[in-house]
Design goal:
Blueprint (H helix, E strand, L loop, with lengths): L11 E6 L10 H14 L3 E4 L5 H11 L4 E5 L4 H6 L10 E4 L3 H12 L2 E5 L3 H12 L4 E4 L9 H8 L6 E4 L2 H15 L5
Parallel strand pairs: 1-2, 1-5, 2-3, 3-4, 5-6, 6-7
Helix pairs in contact: 1-2, 1-7, 4-5
């Protein structure tokens, strides 16, 4: 799906999730790879934190589907990305080196995307979720993947705050379709 007025502009969907995945559901990797494939199959660009774990799985799926993947790194250089943060370079077409550490990277990552999707997740994922929540960005939650993804509905309920743009689904294809509808409502031009 592309904007009619600006067909060259692609929708950017960020996949946020656990870099360390020992607590994720047994099928979280396959579901997250499929999430990456579905993002590409629906004409969008995948944006990740240029990290390991769930975002990396989504990047693998996106690349398998012939997609374009942008990574936003906490590091200030490729050398720091690999040596200090021990993060991968493969399965991304572009990596932007922010030099802002994880907290600064998380803010730029979520703000750079049109929407975010949570898969599994830990504290950093919760941070990215709350940035998107405060910015009223469309959010998708891939339920059944473990970690923060399976806690989000309760966290939102306990926040006593309204956000009308959150979609929940355990099926990656259905979730991407729901998220694209939310993005469509957020755009100023037709898709």
């Amino acid at each position: 799906m592309q904007s009619i007025s600006h067909p060259h502009l692609k929708i950017k969907i960020c996949v946020s999730g656990a870099a360390e995945t020992g607590h994720c559901a047994p099928d979280a990797m396959e579901k997250t790879k499929e999430l990456g494939r579905q993002i590409v199959k629906h004409g969008a660009v995948l944006v990740t934190g240029a990290t390991t774990g769930t975002p990396y799985w989504a990047a693998i799926g996106a690349k398998e589907a012939g997609g374009f993947v942008v990574g936003v790194s906490p590091a200030g250089s490729e050398k720091e990305h690999v040596e200090k943060y021990e993060l991968p370079l493969d399965n991304h077409d572009i990596i932007i080196y922010t030099g802002f550490g994880y907290a600064g990277r998380n803010l730029l990552l979520t703000r750079a995307a049109d929407a975010i999707v949570i898969s599994c997740g830990r504290m950093g994922t919760l941070n990215e979720f709350t940035v998107a929540f405060e910015d009223q960005k469309p959010i998708g939650v891939l339920t059944g993947t473990g970690g923060m993804a399976d806690e989000m509905r309760e966290i939102v309920e306990k926040s006593h705050r309204v956000h009308n743009g959150i979609a929940y689904d355990s099926d990656p294809k259905k979730l991407v379709e729901k998220l694209l509808e939310l993005i469509k409502k957020d755009k100023i031009v037709e898709m």
